[in-house]
Amino acid sequence: MQQRRMPLYLTEWVTAFNPDRKIAFSFDQQSEQPQPYRCGLPLRSPVSPALFLIYSNAMLERSHQSHDAIDTSYVDDVCMVQMSMTITRANTLLEERTEEHLGRGVHLGLTFVPSKTKLLYCLPLTSKDKNRSLSTHPPLRINNNTIVATRQIKYLGVHIDESLSFLHHATMAAAKGNRALGSLNFLRHCLRGIPTHVTHHLAMTAILPTMFWASPAWWTGTPMITATLHTTYNSVARWITGLPLNTRTTNLITLSQLLPMEAYLDYLSLRYAIRLHFLPQHHALGPPQALSETHPNLPGLHRLYALSKHLVQGKLENRTTTSTADRTNVLPSPNPDKTTTPQQLHKEWLHTLPNHTVVIYTDGSKLENGSVGCGWATFHCSDQQLYRLGEGSCHLGKRAEVYDAELRAIQGVVTSLLTTTAPRATAIICVDNRVALETLQFNKHNHEYARRALEMISNLSLLGWEISTTWCPSHCNIKGNERADTLAQRGATSAILCLFALTTKTWLLAQARAELL
Q1: Is residue 455 a contact partner of residue 325, using CB atoms and an 8 Å limit?
Q2: In 279-334, which ranges are E strands?
Q3: CB distance 56 to 48 below 8 Å
Q4: How far is CA 71 from the centre of its chain?
Q5: Strand partners, 431
Q6: Residue 386 forms beta bridges with which residues?
Q7: How far is 158 from 507, CA to CA, in rounded Å?
Q8: What's the pLDDT score for residue 61?
Q9: Residue 150, helix vs strand vs coil
Q10: β-pair type (77-82, 30-31)
């Protein structure tokens, strides 16, 4: 951890976590005194998998990484890819790399298991060796163990064949779907079984995820793969509906409320492609890109790029920058819901606020043409009355959602507090979007507008502000909320684009769902 320049506090915590551990054995209600013992990572500890990754990664470190050699690992599974003009040369380079890794592993107590090692040759379709028997290819030798090549290997649940057609994986995926369906088949009966909406839920959450595991990596849309999967997919639809075998496939899919299989798999791939565009910079994966030197119809990143290039345009939201800003303080809302006299309850709550309290209302709006705007209104509380301090709005373009606008409004209004004439006191932000409030509590997806707002709130707290948030019902004739809504609509119709206008991840995922679902 020190060699990787990890934070000192984390290194010291791990140092204090592992040594001086003790063990005691119990038998027949008798326990011995705990005795010290030496161990590696403690078993069943939540931190053990993360520490193992740090520990084992040292085995794969290389002083020089060639452009034709790739090493990837996932927990204890290691994949080494070697590109070369000949099989013999590729084997030689693989043996050298493996010896280097094993040499590092000796000092760490880590070794490869030869019996679990697989070898796959991916030859060009035009190669003269393509149709030759595998026994004619030179074998790979690791520690005096001979590794014979196979026609396909399984890595992280995906069966990879030598032609990258993934036809074998489609066959195995269909079999897994049939097994998952068979384990639930007894629950369905035309008279006394579970209802249709429950079977649909089970299909979407238990059967199809098992069947379409890692589909963005292997789904190519070729007729061979489609034909292999269709039989199982139609069986799932028939189980959902309980219809007889002679039902037309189009009617079966429609009545089961399932999408056409091709559209559903394209949606899974497009959603994954969007996620790749928002990964941290140090992540092993990256955004799909067009590679002119490769075949355009290859699976994987090539297909993901073709699916997403019409959506992923313009300046993207930045979800890679990290922040240490703390979450906001949330006050209990005076309104339990939108139906129980919301206006009266909110007004009574305002009367309880002390003088000099700053009350802020934010809102986001999206027009029918897709334009999105946000607005905010700031009020000063004095003698149980609200006096307007300021207001603002901005236009976010057509590549954002109302949720994004809500967070952008919060960012905008807390920034305006830097220049307000009101005394630095308590400020309460009334937000009518519960999801936005939850994001300010835990920004687990690192939303850019939320991150900027939290950073500004943290800076304002150093200046003497005490900022909290609370939920406020919308469209209930609450003066401040109605004003923020008017400003948000004004922002959506503005001709001047906001400096913080972005293509947000929320909008991209919504567009993918609208196009394919």
Answers
A1: yes
A2: 329-330
A3: no
A4: 23
A5: 362, 471
A6: 381
A7: 30
A8: 73
A9: strand
A10: unpaired
What single-letter amino acid sits at 227?
Answer: A
List the one residue out of 444, 450, 442 whose CA is nearest residue 412: 450
- The predicted pLDDT at position 28 comes to 82
> Is 394 exposed, middle or buried (CB count within 10 Å of its CB: 0-12, 13-18, 19+)?
buried
Amino acid, single-letter form, for residue 406: E
- Alpha-carbon 76 to chain mean position: 22
In whole angstroms, give the CA distance from residue 447 to residue 92. Answer: 47
Cβ neighbours of residue 215 under 8 Å, at least 6 residues apart? 265, 268, 269
In this prediction, residue 290 carries a pLDDT of 76
- Identify the pLDDT of residue 295: 67
The whole-number mean pLDDT for each consecutive block of 10 residues of the chain, a chain of 517 residues, reads 81 80 83 80 76 78 76 84 90 88 79 83 84 86 86 93 92 96 87 88 96 94 92 96 92 95 96 93 82 69 89 93 88 91 94 94 96 96 90 96 97 94 92 96 94 95 95 94 97 95 97 93
Backbone angles phi, psi at 498, to 5 degrees: -65, 150
**Residue showing tokens 């040292």:** 58
SS3 (DSSP) at 390: strand
Rounded distance, CA 469 to CA 128, Å?
Answer: 69
pTM higher than the cut 0.70: yes
Q: What DSSP assignment string belongs to 430-444?
A: EES-HHHHHHHH--T
Query: Which residues have a Cβ under 8 Å from the Cβ of 86 and sit 6 or more positions away?
Result: none
Contact 151, 161 (CB under 8 A): yes
Surface-to-core class of residue 449, CB atoms within 10 Å of its CB (0-12 exposed, 13-18 middle, 19+ buried): buried
How far is the C-alpha of 200 from the C-alpha of 253, rounded, in Å? 12
- Tokens matching residue 101: 């890794």
Element containing residue 141 per DSSP (H, E):
strand 140-142
H/E element holding 429?
Answer: strand 426-431
What is the identity of the amino acid at 424? Answer: R
Question: 3-class secondary structure for 228-291?
Answer: HHHHHHHHHHHHHHCCCCCCCHHHHHHHCCCCCHHHHHHHHHHHHHHHHCCCCCCCCCCCCCCC
Separation of alpha carbons 107 and 85, rounded Å: 34
d(CA 467, CA 430): 11
Q: Phi, psi (5° rounding) for residue 383?
A: 55, 45
Burial 206-243 (b: 16+ CB within 10 A, else e): ebbeebbbebbbbbbeeeebbebbeebbbbbbbbbbeb
Report how far apart, in Å, the C-alpha atoms of 462 and of each of 416, 441, 455, 466 are.
16, 19, 11, 9
At residue 212, the pLDDT reads 97
